[in-house]
Amino acid sequence: MKVLIIKLTSMGDLMHALPALTDAAKAFPGIEFDWVVDEAFAEVPKWHPNVRKVITTSHRRWKKSAWQTLTGGELRQFYRELNLDDYDAVIDMQNNLKSALVSKLRRGPVYGLDKDSCRERPAHLAYQYPLSVNPQQHAVDRMRQILSQALDYPLPKTPAKYAANFSKYPLPELEFALPERYLMFVHNASWLTKLWPINFWQQLVFQARAEGYAVLLPCGNNEEYLRAQQIASVDPMAFALPRLGLNDIAAIMHHAVGAVCSDTGLAHLAAVAGTPALTLYGATDTALIGTYGKHQQHLVSEFNCAPCYKRKCPLPASRNGEPLCMTEMTPEMVWHGLQPLLAAQ
Questions:
Q1: The pLDDT value given to residue 68
Q2: Of 312, 291, 213, the residue nearest 256 (C-alpha)
Q3: Pfam families given for it (predicted)?
Q4: Fold of 167-343
Q5: Start-to-end C-alpha separation, the chain
Q6: Which of 311, 331, 330, 337 is nearest to 322 (CA)?
Q7: Which residues pair with 54 in a beta bridge?
Q8: What span, in angstroms and rounded, lies between the C-alpha atoms of 127 and 114?
Q9: In this structure, are residues 131 and 113 in contact, taking their beta carbons and an 8 Å threshold?
Q10: CATH fold match for the domains 2-151 and 167-343
Q11: How far is Cα 104 from Cα 125, in angstroms, rounded to an integer?
Q12: What are the tens digits of pLDDT across the range 62-77?
């Protein structure tokens, strides 16, 4: 069997789909998937052993230079590649307007969520085979249900398995030797309301160093690198990692003893890698998008207004939109929550 998956972004959402492919591979041994994904996250689908080919889009770049995209041939090349192979099923597992547009460019019928289940209307109009899935459940469960309905196999009752094997990825060459025992501190996030204060991260570095752990801090851009350097400045065995590819970060995360994470894509990478991790939540809801898997724990704000899903804190006491709910979670609370995960290793 050969199946085309359409799921473009974002990093964590892509990882949430991996267990569904594992289910399908158990139901149909030898099944192969091709996957349409944004070029920024092209590594993620390849982590699953049943993914044969990745077809990339670049919606942000195409939107910024629409005329060049239309006249330069890139869109025509994407259309040809999208329709090059025949598939037993084509399934949109993202079900928003961007993925619906890609679904319309694919010749032939497409499976996708119906109007009561899809994330963005009128995306459901792009699908010839509508599926009904309760949107008020965790993303991993939604993805597993979508694929089981589309391919018509019983939904497994077994725990979700990502099936990624990061031990095959070599560790990247860095300007320093990787320590033997290190923790990953995923300090960055795309929303201000997901960020834990820098001085709290610094205090957590002291806690980790007192227990003999080195600390590595990943980053995705220059601003995050500067933030990582500021956190790492308090101890010579805390290191701000340079900007690395996802495969490199995956290899480093796989070898980490544990991790403390903001609510961001790399927190879900810890789950995929099987690295014990404590993830901090304030503005967002763990029931829908919390890290999912073995040795994954959540520390959730008890503020009455959480989760608010706001990118800036609206409370009068907030300074420049910084989240008050995240300051409620002290370094002592975080370290206390992490210790049982480290002890389980």
A1: 67
A2: 213
A3: Glyco_transf_9
A4: Rossmann fold (3.40.50)
A5: 39
A6: 311
A7: 35
A8: 8
A9: yes
A10: yes
A11: 9
A12: 776 665 665 667 889 9
Instruction: Give the tokens for residue 119.
Output: 């994330």
Q: What is the pLDDT of residues 16-53, one digit of tens each?
A: 999 999 999 999 999 999 999 999 999 999 999 999 99
Quote the strand ranges of the chain, DSSP E. Answer: 2-6, 32-38, 51-57, 89-92, 111-113, 129-131, 182-186, 214-217, 238-240, 258-261, 277-281, 296-300
How many CB atoms sit inside 10 A of residue 216's CB?
27
> Quick one: which H or E segment has residue 232?
helix 222-232
The domain ranges of the chain are 2-151, 167-343
Please name the residue that has the structure tokens 């694929």. 147
Please check whether residue 191 is in contact with residue 311, taking contact to mean a CB–CB distance below 8 angstroms: yes
Angle between helices 265-273 and 246-255 (to 10 degrees): 50
In this structure, what is the dihedral angle of CA atoms 218, 220, 221, 224, given to the nearest 10 degrees? -40
Q: CATH classification of 2-151 is 1.25.60.10, yes or no?
A: no
- 51: nearest Cα among 17, 11, 82: 17
Burial of 92 (0-12, 13-18, 19+ CB in 10 A): buried
The whole model's pTM is what? 0.94
> Helix (H, G, I), strand (E, B), or coil: what is residue 278?
strand
